[in-house]
Amino acid sequence: MLISFTPKRFYDERGWFTETFNARKMAAFIAPLRWVQDNQSSSKAAGTVRGLHFQSLPHAQAKLVSCIRGSIFDVAVDLRKNSPTYGQHVTIELSAENGRQLYIPIGFAHGLMTLEPNTQVSYKVSDYYAPECEGGILWNDPELNIPWPKFSNQNALSPKDGILPLLKDFDSPFVYDGTPMSLTEAV
């Protein structure tokens, strides 16, 4: 299950304060995870695409994604073999303004497109980066039918992301665990 978290903000005359992560609160929605690494990305241009990425076993990663400056169109694609929603996606807008976060479990590819210039994204992962386990699916694979926003610089993409395989050419290492793909709003 994918979960959208919107941490509460406490406002005063100076601005606001928020608790961006609390393991006890998150445990009410998912089994406790050991978060081991925090990552950040910064993208200069609106329309920059990152993804669709994952890490396979034995270093598969769950992610908790936040946009800390600007805004993004965030995407998770179900890659779990035998899942009734294999190849389907969930999308959500994350922004510094709305403060939303997206929890993406193991077995999903993750990608994003920046909606504003100078956008920054931060995410926690449940396993360390392991280059031998990294993989991905082509971001604009027609079979995925992801409704990416339109920008004039659609080629703001890394060379590596531009040559990822199509879903039909991908042999998933992930197995469906019986948990349906849905986007749940945590309160």
Index terms:
Jelly Rolls; six-stranded mixed sheet; 187 residues; mainly beta; 2% helix; five-stranded antiparallel sheet
What does this structure look like?
The chain is mainly beta. The protein has one domain (2-186): Jelly Rolls. The chain has one helix at 23-26, and strands at 2-5, 9-12, 15-18, 37-43, 49-55, 63-69, 71-78, 80-81, 89-95, 101-104, 108-114, 119-125, 134-136, 174-175, 183-186. A hairpin with a 2-residue loop joins strand 2 (9-12) and strand 3 (15-18). The mean pLDDT is 92.
Largest sheet: 6 strands, mixed
Number of strands: 15
Number of helices: 1
Q: The CATH topology, please?
A: Jelly Rolls
Q: Overall mean pLDDT score?
A: 92
Determine the strand fraction and express it as a percent band. 35-45%
- Give the distance, in angstroms, between the N- and C-terminal Cα atoms: 15 Å
Please tell me the total number of domains: 1
Quick one: overall form?
globular
Sequence stretches where pLDDT stays below 50 over 5 or more residues: none
Radius of gyration over alpha carbons? 16 Å
Q: Based on helices, strands and strand pairing, what is the structural class?
A: mainly beta
Summarize this entry quickly.
This protein has 187 residues and is mainly beta. Helices cover 2% and strands 41% of the residues.
Question: SSE layout and pairings?
Answer:
Layout: E1 2-5, E2 9-12, E3 15-18, H1 23-26, E4 37-43, E5 49-55, E6 63-69, E7 71-78, E8 80-81, E9 89-95, E10 101-104, E11 108-114, E12 119-125, E13 134-136, E14 174-175, E15 183-186
Parallel strand pairs: 1-15, 8-14
Antiparallel strand pairs: 1-10, 2-3, 4-12, 5-11, 5-13, 6-10, 6-12, 7-9, 7-11
